[in-house]
Amino acid sequence: MTLDKGLLIVLSGPSGVGKGTVRKAVFDNPDTDFKYSISMTTRKKREGEVDGVDYFFKSHEEFEALIEQDKFIEYAEYVGNYYGTPVDFVRETLEKGHDVFLEIEVEGAKQVRDKFPEALFIFLAPPSIAHLKDRLIGRGTDSQEVINYRIQEAKRELELMNLYDYVVINDSVDEACRKIHSIVEASHLRRSRVERTLRKLLLEADN
Ligand SMILES: Nc1nc2c(ncn2[C@@H]2O[C@H](COP(=O)(O)OP(=O)(O)O)[C@@H](O)[C@H]2O)c(=O)[nH]1
Ligand SMILES: Nc1ncnc2c1ncn2[C@@H]1O[C@H](COP(=O)(O)OP(=O)(O)O)[C@@H](O)[C@H]1O
């Protein structure tokens, strides 16, 4: 029985689709009661970022030592840096009955599926490739060459969409947040219906 445990929610999708933006909006909503799992990364801290709030910033050596100690649910190399989800926080928080939210790229999400098949997988998709291109250009963090590379990669990443439980189109950020909240609510309802039915049938089988 898992009802007393929290739900693991995984938001993923191609680079530039708006995962970070949507995640921030989800957590800006005071009604959100999921716990955000702060990732570890070897990338340099950007201006305004705070260690332990945006990420736990680690050196390459520290990160590799943590990999050796099996301290990640998943980790991936992304644009030359490591990113990973710390296992202890996620397990402890789920055990306490809280929902945990991960915002990670697609390779990492694949690894989570193997370890937490019962997790809820939400794929954030762009309204169109033209939107994706515009967002990558608009973000202003990548050269034209890197943007072209990311668009090529996005095709491969989009093909993974059918492995997810739900697809949310990131047209408006507010609408995407609302959809994520309703998906989580529906998943809780489904989970409690399944568990109640199972409990009833098992009790009957024992008598
Ligand atoms: N696999 C994995 N990906 C992560 C994790 N944390 C963040 N990411 C992803 O890493 C990518 C780069 O993140 P970041 O460096 O913050 O840059 P930006 O989101 O592209 O501005 C994004 O696609 C994040 O979703 C993690 O713990 N594991
Ligand atoms: N729904 C949206 N409409 C318009 N622009 C968006 C939307 N969502 C995100 N963006 C913009 O797209 C760019 C990429 O978003 P970001 O959150 O960095 O993507 P990701 O984390 O998936 O790489 C940012 O400049 C962001 O402001």
Write the layout of secondary structure elements.
Blueprint: E1 8-12, H1 19-28, E2 35-36, E3 40-41, E4 56-57, H2 60-68, E5 72-78, E6 81-86, H3 87-95, E7 100-103, H4 106-115, E8 120-125, H5 129-139, H6 144-158, E9 166-169, H7 173-206
Parallel strand pairs: 1-7, 1-8, 2-7, 3-4, 8-9
Antiparallel strand pairs: 3-6, 5-6
Helix pairs in contact: 1-7, 5-6
The chain binds guanosine-5'-diphosphate and adenosine-5'-diphosphate (ADP).
Subcellular location: Cytoplasm
GO cellular component, one term: cytosol
Pfam families: Guanylate_kin
Description:
This protein starts with 7 loop residues before the first strand and ends with a helix. A 5-stranded parallel sheet has the order 2-7-1-8-9, sandwiched between helices. The mean pLDDT is 95. It has a domain of 139 residues: P-loop containing nucleotide triphosphate hydrolases (Rossmann fold, 3-Layer(aba) Sandwich), CATH 3.40.50. Helix 1 packs across helix 7. It contains 7 helices and 9 strands; from the N terminus they run E-H-E-E-E-H-E-E-H-E-H-E-H-H-E-H. It is of the alpha/beta class and 207 residues long. The structure holds guanosine-5'-diphosphate and adenosine-5'-diphosphate. Guanosine-5'-diphosphate binds next to helix 1, strand 5 and strand 6. Adenosine-5'-diphosphate binds next to helix 1 and helix 5.
